[in-house]
């Protein structure tokens, strides 16, 4: 039978505004990737670190702590030997990533629009006047 893990409480009952969290998360080159890995089921710190080339344990742990503080993810520590820690999205985190998904979709639309404009310009240059 597996032991149930304890979920660590957030450090503070207050968290920044959602707009500040979005700014902070999008402004960090590692945080988006960490969130995406956790969404895909990569939930153990060692696996997260191995999955992202160039990410150090120090930076990863800082980002994980920040996401826990924002209550986007929760840390679950299992009373096992050796100790096991996993992270998962909270219910707030599942709502929060929808904002990130919408931003990524908007980015895809902007890229597609830009490509269409570039292709139209190329087509016009190639067409006889």
TrEMBL record:
Gene3D superfamilies registered for this protein in UniProt: Winged helix-like DNA-binding domain superfamily/Winged helix DNA-binding domain
Keywords: DNA-binding, Transcription, Transcription regulation
An annotated Gene Ontology molecular function: DNA binding
Taxonomy, superkingdom: Bacteria
Pfam families in UniProt: HxlR
Domain HTH hxlR-type: 15-115
PROSITE patterns: HTH_HXLR
Protein name, UniProt field: Transcriptional regulator, HxlR family
Organism: Pyrinomonas methylaliphatogenes
